[in-house]
Specification:
This protein has 104 residues and is an all-alpha fold. The chain has helices at residues 2-43, 49-103. The relative contact order is 0.03.
């Protein structure tokens, strides 16, 4: 019984290692394929290199602006939520503190 459990544990460990290696190989292969696809797309693009770089620069700037707007919006929501929570907490604490002082 003990020997079969030990063999099962070793086999399970080997299968797990094989799965990890396979997943790593797959991820590396996908990364290489994506890089080749990107390079091929840029090299065979119908625009000139200068136009392509300008388009990429504009797209990056637009993406950053959208990202900044989203951050600004989320920050404002967070501020409002924090202020609301602080006010609720203060409202809950203030009556208890005042009641405690009156009893003395």
């Amino acid at each position: 019984m003990f020997f079969s459990d030990l063999l099962d544990m070793v086999n399970r460990k080997k299968r797990e290692e094989e799965r990890t290696k396979t997943a790593l190989k797959f991820a590396v292969g996908m990364g290489i394929a994506a890089t080749i696809g990107l390079a091929r797309g840029i090299l065979f693009a119908p625009k000139s290199g200068k136009e392509t770089r300008e388009a990429l620069k504009k797209k990056a700037a637009d993406t950053m602006e959208v990202f900044r707007d989203k951050i600004r919006t989320k920050t404002e929501v967070l501020k409002g939520t924090t202020l609301h929570a602080a006010q609720k907490l203060q409202d809950n604490i203030a009556p208890k503190t005042t009641a405690g002082k009156k009893k003395r």
